[in-house]
Amino acid sequence: MSRKVVITGMGCVSGLGIGVAPTWQRSIAGESAIRPLDRPPIAGPAAWVDPDALAQAAARLDLKRMGKLDPLSLFALVAAAEAVDMAGLAGHPALATRTAILLGCGSPGNATLDAAFERLYARGLGKLHPQTIPSSMMSAPASHLAMLLGVHGPTMALSSACASSANALGEALHMIRAGRVDVAVAGGSEACIAYGSWVAWQALGVVAPDTCRPFSRDRKGLALGEGAALLVLESEEHALARGAPILGELAGYGASSDAADMTAPDQAGVEGAIRAAFDDAALAPETPALISTHGTGTKLNDATEAAAIRAVHGAGLHASTVIATKSAHGHLIGGSGALEFLIGMKALAEGIAPPVLNHLGPDPDSDLPLALEAGPIAHDILVSNSFAFGGLNAVLIGRKRT
After folding, report:
1. Rounded CA gap, 373 and 121, in Å?
2. Is 162 a catalytic residue?
3. Which of the residues 144, 294, 313, 329 is marked catalytic?
4. What domains lie within the chain, and their CATH numbers?
5. Helices 336-350 and 20-28, interaxial angle, to 10°?
6. Which of the following is catalytic: 162, 192, 212, 359?
7. Is 212 a catalytic residue?
8. How large is the angle between the packed helices 299-313 and 267-280, nearest 10 degrees?
9. What pLDDT digit, counting tens, does each position of 171-215 carry?
10. CA distance 274 to 280
11. Active-site annotation holds for 294
């Protein structure tokens, strides 16, 4: 580890609200964004972004050059603008060549593809919008961010399903450590509440008919969410030299592949990513921490994650605090890891753990020391887990700024 990597800016968009402040306030107030969605032909519980609030936030940005924007890009642009403003980086010369953009997405522009296929197949029209391809590409949000911020450095999309944005943050960490760049705008975006995506997720049989109940008895599955979370990462020396606010440190990253099954998690693979993150941060796994779980609310995933957490953290688990914020903001798929890391770092800074919602009581196969009410914490370390379909695992370790 050649250079310490710190966080100087955060921005987010989700069903909880537009921006870090409302997201945090609703999180610690125990409010959930998961509510009935009636957007024919879509109907069911989900955590969607308020379109009017999103439009108001986007209106403050210079998007004239962007062309047709899928929500996938729009979410990322609004979140990134907040993060860069918080970091005080707008217009900074480092953005030109010493900054990277790494954006994780689990799927491409679903709304744009839905509109194109409806026109092509349902209405039998032989022509599509000329910007269908550039608007729907999974890399479009990364390119749009580069255009908005004037970034000419390495810019790319990473896709590893539900681990995408955690991988983006972790790989950005290593780029800065290695000296390839001084700054990275990293995180993820997802816009999966579109008809085709919705029906596909329902077909998997993992979507709850009511709400998301992580690690609870009678849990029935996940609730889809949408939005984005972006963080500004910098080498500590770069941040200090420009007098930037330092919000915390990204101290460790571990990644692994189960190489076992496309949908069923493997405990050994999950444990491997957690242990690798602790090794990277030069910390013992028994270190008491705020543990932000993947916590999807599905029977198998929660049980496997709980077993892995107990195995890795061992005796230190009783002094740790476990949260599961998908119970509030839903599952943003590729954007979840970054949003959960952001909320977790905010929790470290404020000394408060947001509550796990919708809990009906402990389940023996997923028993953990859950924060069922908002309450004070004194942890300096955050462990943020992301475990994806295809057996792709990513774990981030954050450190409170002291």
Report:
1. 49
2. yes
3. 294
4. 5-241 (3.40.47.10), 252-399 (3.40.47.10)
5. 70
6. 162
7. no
8. 40
9. 999 999 999 999 999 999 999 999 999 999 999 999 999 999 999
10. 10
11. yes
